[in-house]
Design a protein that fits this description.
This protein is of the alpha+beta class. Helices cover 18% and strands 40% of the residues. Strand 1 (21-27) and strand 2 (32-40) form a beta hairpin. Mean pLDDT is 81; it is low at 43-47.
Length: 200
């Protein structure tokens, strides 16, 4: 169930800032594209819609056109899926994100999504880019994945509250997170407990 996981933030940030990599793109229409691509992502402080661009043909693919992709970096293959996400279970806004597959269970799936933090630029000419992973969970056959890890910035809804909202069908898991028997920051452990112990 668990696979070798490369750092999602490192992979996507390096590609979006610097380079190109071999990929298989699986499009929503069923076609498979193989070649060398680069990712144009949210970099240098200006939000842009993520695009996958072919090195050879310059053909551009938006996330809405892609079902999944596999990157080949050195001897590793890294699988990503395009997921529709919400920050909270009651959020109205949805977005498409490129998520590295961390877990594909029978009942739940986990994805790592790279995000960036920008500082500077308003007063000084220097802009620094920091990066981190947001972690999204999606119940099997659900349409939406929800942020269940740390959310950058003040005033965000706490992890325990989001666990209670998302896992209403598993009171035992809610209890264990509330009592810190499962640490709230261990999203993979939370997902695995749900996969293995919360049966319908």
């Amino acid at each position: 169930m668990k696979k070798k996981l490369l750092n999602a933030t490192f992979c996507l940030m390096t590609l979006s800032l610097l380079g190109q990599v071999k990929m298989n793109l699986i499009l929503k229409n069923g076609n498979i594209k193989t070649g060398t691509y680069k990712i144009k992502d949210n970099t240098l402080g200006w939000a842009t819609k993520t695009k996958i661009i072919s090195k050879n043909t310059n053909e551009k693919y938006n996330l809405k056109d892609i079902r999944s992709l596999v990157m080949f970096i050195n001897s590793d293959s890294i699988r990503y899926e395009v997921i529709k996400v919400k920050k909270y279970s009651d959020s109205k806004k949805t977005e498409l994100k490129l998520g590295q597959v961390g877990l594909k269970g029978n009942r739940i799936e986990l994805f790592y999504v790279s995000e960036y933090v920008y500082q500077g630029g308003a007063v000084s000419n220097i802009t620094t880019v920091g990066s981190y992973n947001e972690i999204y969970l999606k119940k099997k056959n659900a349409q939406i994945a929800y942020n269940m890890g740390y959310i950058y910035g003040a005033g965000q809804r706490g992890v325990k509250k989001r666990v209670r909202e998302f896992f209403k069908d598993c009171s035992l898991l809610i209890e264990k997170v509330d009592k810190n028997e499962i640490p709230k920051k261990e999203t993979m452990e939370i997902a695995l407990f749900y996969e293995n112990n919360c049966k319908k």
